[in-house]
């Protein structure tokens, strides 16, 4: 295991490993590291950690120190020097009449070397330009010719997808991209649609190439002879992303249909003749989406539930079934201790309403049993002068016949007794029909 720290130069996407040399560096700190061009100012992105020896390239260059305020000021002066050198170099290129485009200028940390990056369609003789620049800056001058993809990586920008260039964001190295990738992915071969800002094929064509190659191996080729649930036909188009194919049926050539790959039985893959190909009698099953599968399972479960309910039904005709349903639903029949009478069952003849009926005394109705307990003593009543009471004046005779019955009913009504609560007492019940 080797202890390393990861740093990046000038905000580039590539990360380089250095030996911390016993110094603990936190991510986000600026450091001075030793490179092949001398000491450089960089930003730490990965703190101290140990990696396998196979992941580093020996000898591993070391960390010089953690950047100080003086190092920060030196780095800012170098950025200003690079900006001035860019303008001076462009003027000298125009004076010498060279066919070259200046892209970027970089100066090392100690200012002893300045590198000029440029692009050109061909070879350029810039020996005179180097002598003028060396006399101007009193430093070692180096001119490097780069390609258009390196130019896009250095300058950065926004692609047609609306995001920053992949090469400037996270790609460490350029990946090879060919026009065959665009053909495999069924993309338009128009150069303006599949090319990036740099003028080369977009790097993102490589990202999904493996997925498309796997889909091509699993899907049938175009013009293949296949058997579908609706009959035999030829494939006219293949949709790799949906894994579907458009088939022109032999019975209905004017209306092509779309099928999933699992619905196709490939009899001949690719172009060719149908001679000697035997068409099976059994056709493939139709493909059902997960939603359709869920609906089918739900319908099957409902059918099984109905069959189970029919098997568990108690014999006894429709009346027994109505009783169970009323009991389960908690309907009127359940609450009242009985079931709803069946409309088809014979019912007892109801008595005619016009016939005179004897009123049932209310005293015979069942009464709910009340909790027994000691009643509070009733306050004594004050005696009033009534002729129908027992304490009538002496010498007055008690009422007889109808007058006695009426007096008894009045006494029961005034007392709020049993006869009053139930609509009449024992004496009132017998005389209720006579009144």
Describe this structure in words.
- The chain is an alpha+beta fold and 435 residues long.
- Among the domains are: 66 residues, no CATH class; 68 residues, 2-Layer Sandwich (GMP Synthetase, Chain A, domain 3); 60 residues, no CATH class; 92 residues, Roll (SH3 type barrels).
- The protein contains 13 helices and 13 strands.
- The strands form 3 sheets. A 5-stranded antiparallel sheet has the order 2-1-4-3-5, with no helix packed on it. It has a 5-stranded antiparallel sheet with strand order 12-11-10-9-13, with no helix packed on it.
- The termini are far apart.
**How many helices does DSSP assign?**
13
**Overall pLDDT, averaged?**
79
Structural class: alpha+beta
- Strand content bin: 15-25%
What is the name of the CATH architecture of one domain? Roll
Major sheet: 5 strands, antiparallel
Q: Roughly what percent helix? A: 25-40%
The oligomeric status of these chains comes to: single chain
> What would the CATH topology of one domain be?
SH3 type barrels
Distance between the termini: 118 Å
What's the β-strand tally? 13
Q: Please write the CATH class name of one domain.
A: Mainly Beta
Shape, principal axes of CA atoms:
flat
* Element string (H = helix, E = strand): EEEEEHEEHEHHHHHEEEEEHHHHHH
Question: Uncertain segments of ≥5 residues (pLDDT<50)?
Answer: 336-346, 358-364, 387-391, 422-435
Round the Cα radius of gyration to an integer and report it.
52 Å
């Amino acid at each position: 295991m080797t202890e390393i720290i990861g740093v990046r130069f000038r905000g580039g996407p590539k990360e380089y490993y250095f030996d911390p040399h016993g110094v603990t560096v936190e991510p986000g700190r600026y450091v001075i590291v030793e490179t092949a061009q001398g000491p450089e100012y960089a930003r730490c992105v990965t703190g101290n950690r140990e990696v396998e020896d196979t992941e580093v390239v020996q000898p591993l260059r070391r960390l010089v120190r953690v950047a100080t305020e003086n190092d920060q000021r030196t780095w800012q002066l170098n950025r200003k020097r690079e900006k001035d050198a860019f303008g001076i170099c462009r003027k000298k290129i125009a004076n010498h009449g060279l066919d070259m485009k200046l892209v970027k200028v970089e100066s090392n940390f100690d200012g002893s070397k300045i590198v000029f990056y440029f692009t050109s369609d061909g070879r350029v003789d810039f020996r005179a330009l180097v002598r003028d620049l060396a006399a101007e800056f009193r430093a070692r001058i180096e001119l490097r010719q780069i390609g258009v993809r390196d130019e896009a990586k250095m300058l950065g920008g926004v692609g047609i997808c609306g995001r920053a260039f992949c090469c400037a964001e996270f790609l460490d190295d350029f990946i090879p991209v060919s026009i065959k990738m665009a053909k495999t992915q069924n993309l338009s071969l128009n150069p303006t649609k599949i090319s990036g800002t740099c003028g080369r094929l977009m790097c993102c064509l490589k990202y999904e190439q493996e997925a498309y190659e796997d889909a091509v191996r699993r899907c049938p080729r175009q013009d293949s002879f296949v058997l579908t649930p609706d009959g035999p036909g030829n494939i006219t188009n293949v949709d790799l992303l949906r894994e579907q194919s458009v088939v022109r049926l032999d019975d209905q050539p004017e209306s092509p249909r779309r099928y999933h790959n699992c619905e196709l039985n490939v009899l001949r893959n690719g172009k060719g003749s149908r001679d000697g190909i035997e068409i099976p009698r059994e056709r493939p099953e139709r493909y059902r989406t997960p939603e359709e599968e869920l609906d089918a399972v739900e319908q099957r479960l409902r059918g099984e539930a109905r069959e189970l309910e029919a098997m568990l039904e108690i014999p006894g005709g429709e009346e027994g079934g109505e009783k169970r349903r009323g009991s389960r639903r908690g309907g009127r029949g359940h609450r009242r201790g009985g079931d709803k009478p069946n409309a088809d069952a014979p019912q007892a003849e109801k008595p005619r309403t016009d016939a005179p009926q004897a009123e049932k005394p209310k005293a015979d109705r069942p009464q709910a049993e009340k909790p027994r307990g000691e009643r509070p003593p009733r306050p004594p009543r004050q005696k009033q002068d009534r002729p129908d009471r027992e304490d009538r004046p002496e010498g007055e005779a008690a009422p007889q016949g109808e007058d006695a019955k009426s007096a008894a009913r009045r006494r029961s009504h005034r007392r709020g007794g049993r006869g009053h609560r139930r609509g009449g007492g024992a004496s009132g019940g017998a005389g209720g029909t006579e009144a």
